[in-house]
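Incident log, support desk, overnight shift.

02:14 A customer reports that sequence design results differ from what the structure should imply. Their input is reproduced verbatim below. On-call engineer (initials T.W.) acknowledged and began investigating.
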């Protein structure tokens, strides 16, 4: 059966208070933006403050969006990831209005926007900013840059980290999207966080159709997501790999990839879901904070072969909904793919497992969190 679920109606009463939402940037609907959409259900009509907004890329149906001064910088909508210092300074310059509640959806620097003194602040943290806080990743990425850009990058990340830490001190309640991210919040900000897994759009019924002989990688492909391992494993096994999405690693790896790889670019949700229905498996070789993509795949009956560190360990059940592997090498990924090929996966069990990540559950749990903060 291949019926998609209709949009879930609000199942709870919205919160009644004056509020604003903040988000790092609104340029395309990915996992963080789906969280923001669900938060809009709880606070209907509340404006969104963000650093950069692309109305075409983000689509319709959003409340009023208010942007920082960075919006008017030529090329900012496309090149904002390269403007780390400017992003931090622009966030710090945003003064939020005097409201009861500020709900910040953040994977970068949105928490640095300055709330009114009387506002309660709840930050749903997708992850502390990796290139600012993860020293190994920061230096590794810096080494990939031209020599003239390395010092400015390290200075920019240090500035962003300082401004981000200052913003974190103003947060009344952190909410993490996984236990993995909660540990990072404890390590980097010195704060405890509640865990509420993000919402995932799920099909209404299990997808039980036949599987085809290809694997998938889906997302915005940056170096830490390790697309290179998926390419190497599929080339070694002579198995077709379909790469959906964009990102710097697509540009870097495409020219050297062999004929087993098909690059299809960014696709709509309906097209991605169709690939999930047909693929032999989803390859997920990076260390992710949570990972909405594996949950989407499992909900469509597609087993997940994932690196067994980080958010994947909270969503993938080894031997039941997929296979976890370590260490983070092509050899280990090849062995995991071979193990998965020898197993059978029950689409009904996989679909049932993913219900714990539904949109309705997220809205219900976040309402409890926000109501609790407002009564403190």
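02:41 Re-run completed on a clean worker. Output:
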């Amino acid at each position: 059966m291949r019926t998609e679920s209709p949009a879930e109606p609000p199942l709870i009463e919205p919160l009644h208070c004056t509020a604003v939402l903040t988000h790092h940037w609104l340029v395309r609907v990915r996992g963080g933006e789906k969280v923001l959409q669900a938060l809009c259900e709880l606070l209907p009509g509340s404006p969104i403050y963000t650093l950069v907004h692309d109305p075409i890329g983000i689509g319709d149906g959003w409340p009023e969006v208010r942007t920082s001064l960075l919006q008017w910088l030529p090329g900012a909508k496309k090149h904002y990831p390269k403007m780390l210092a400017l992003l931090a300074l622009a966030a710090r310059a945003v003064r939020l209005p005097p409201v009861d509640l500020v709900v910040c959806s953040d994977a970068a620097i949105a928490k640095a926007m300055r709330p009114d003194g009387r506002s309660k602040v709840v930050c749903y943290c997708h992850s502390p900013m990796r290139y600012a806080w993860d020293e190994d990743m920061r230096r590794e990425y810096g080494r990939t840059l031209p020599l003239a850009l390395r010092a400015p990058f390290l200075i920019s990340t240090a500035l962003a980290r300082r401004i981000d830490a200052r913003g974190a001190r103003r947060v009344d309640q952190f909410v993490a999207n996984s236990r993995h991210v909660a540990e990072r919040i404890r390590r980097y900000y010195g704060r405890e966080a509640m865990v509420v897994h993000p919402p995932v759009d799920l099909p209404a019924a299990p997808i039980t159709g036949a599987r085809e002989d290809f694997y998938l990688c889906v997302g915005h492909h940056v170096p830490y997501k390790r697309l290179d391992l998926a390419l190497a494993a599929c080339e070694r096994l002579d198995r077709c790999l379909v790469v959906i999405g964009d990102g710097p690693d697509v540009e870097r790896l495409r020219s050297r990839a062999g004929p087993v790889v098909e690059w299809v670019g960014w696709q709509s949700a309906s097209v991605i879901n169709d690939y999930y229905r047909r693929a032999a498996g989803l390859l997920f070789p990076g260390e992710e904070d949570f990972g909405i993509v594996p949950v989407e795949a499992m909900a469509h009956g597609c087993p997940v072969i994932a690196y067994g560190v980080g958010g994947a360990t909270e969503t993938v059940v080894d031997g039941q909904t997929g296979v976890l592997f370590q260490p983070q090498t092509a050899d280990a990924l090849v062995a995991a793919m071979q193990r998965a090929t020898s197993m059978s996966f029950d689409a009904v069990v996989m679909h049932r497992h993913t219900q714990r990540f539904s949109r309705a559950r997220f809205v219900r749990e976040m309402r409890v969190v926000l109501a609790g903060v407002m009564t403190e």
